[in-house]
Amino acid sequence: MEVSELKSYDIYDGKDKVLGRLGSAVAKQLLQGKKIAIVNAEQIIISGNLPDIVHKYKTRLDLRDGADPTHSPYWSRRPDMLVKRIVRGMLPYDRKSGRNAYKQLRVFIGVPEALKDSKPIELKSKSPKTLYSGYVSVAELTETLGYNTPT
């Protein structure tokens, strides 16, 4: 993707944002026809108890259709792809409007060079320290699921 293309995107910074709240806000914007880029996907947090969250996503990774495994749902272990898949679940993906909205979403690990100078849209969110049940970052979750972070 070229630098000039990325300049037309609205940018959301995922650092210390709750995934569900960020995802729903982004899904609404996508359905309105906007182009959205999410940066720092690995620093987005998921609220809840770590063992429960890991069990939930391990179950999703292990889903296989016995007759034809190629027709099984696919869940990535990569942080950016996992966030993108979760936002997809908030869109009416089985309709053309949802598929077109999904094509306008870009998710990045870290901040790409082309977007370093851009100012992200501020999304009001609770601080992770105030969450009662605890939280886990997407990076921690994906490492637990088997993703090897490149060094």
Highest CATH level, the class: Alpha Beta
Fraction of residues in H or I helices: 25-40%
The CATH architecture can be named as Alpha-Beta Complex
Per DSSP, the total helix count is 6
Arrangement of strands in the largest sheet: 1-2-4
CATH superfamily: Ribosomal protein L13
Tell me, briefly, the overall form. globular
Q: Which percent band covers the strand fraction? A: 5-15%
Q: H/E series, N to C?
A: HEHEEHHHEEH
Average predicted local confidence, pLDDT: 89
DSSP E strands, number: 5
Number of domains: 1
Rg, Cα atoms, Å = 16 Å
Structural class, judged by helices and strands? alpha/beta
Provide a concise account of the structure shown.
This protein is of the alpha/beta class and 151 residues long. 36% of the residues lie in helices and 11% in strands.
Which terms would index this structure?
alpha/beta; 151 residues; Ribosomal Protein L13p, Chain: A; three-stranded parallel β-sheet; two-stranded antiparallel sheet
Written account of the structure:
It is a single chain. This protein has helices at residues 3-6, 19-31, 50-61, 79-88, 96-102, 138-145, and strands spanning 10-13, 36-39, 45-47, 105-107, 135-137. The protein has one domain: Ribosomal Protein L13p, Chain: A. The protein has 151 residues and is an alpha/beta fold.
